[in-house]
Amino acid sequence: MPASDISPIGAPVWFDLLSSDPGAAQAFYAGVFGWTVEEMGPEHGNYVNFRKNGARIAGMMQNPGGAPDGWITYLKSIDADATAATIWEAGGTVLFEPSDVRGVGRMAIALDPTGAMVGVWEPGTMSGFDLADEASTAVWHELQTSDYAKEVTFYEKAFGWHTEVMSDTDQLRYTLLKSGDVDYAGIMDASAYYPQNAPGTWEIYIGATDVDATIATVLELGGSLVQAAEDTLFGRLAKISDPTGATIKLSSVAVH
Q1: Which of 49, 85, 187, 250 pairs as cysteine with 38 (C-beta 3.0–4.6 A)?
Q2: pTM of the full predicted structure?
């Protein structure tokens, strides 16, 4: 999953945290992933950029209430207003209509047909994250859903995804967003363990050179382990929660 400036339309290019305690979140993610903080100030709604070695990684904003704390994945659009219209046409719901973000881009927030929250990002001066596919950055974005076929159709229509079926067995049904030979995101059939009609969830995977050591740090800093670490065909994976309940996944990556 390359950095956002070369990503195709519909690919994940940004993710940010809706947090009820931004101060605690800053300390937690700094301790777990080594992220530094860039405070954008009141003129930007006190938005925060997380950075790694100076490169922009992700963002954070105050949770105004009405929704649990959590991370939002944003998909690239060349015209946020047109994408919002297509989301409605394809069976989704636009929660926050497209709006300008002080010249850096244009954004919207939507629910897909199963209720998974997803963002729309039309780049201006900011294309999205500067780094990906390494430790302490996003290495994968994945929609887990109990209505797999409906979701594949929705993202093809609403975001123009060019898809390829990676697996279609009872053990694993999985579709990829592809551009050339590069995979950018996936949709997984989670009906085997999601309750029927449960909302889908966009999962974000952060690279870790030592997943178990990262989990130990999470627990030391007041977070929790949601899904225990396990070795899979895709590396060693786990799911953690920060102190206010926002969840994110860990994925093993090689040491560079």
Answers
A1: 49
A2: 0.95
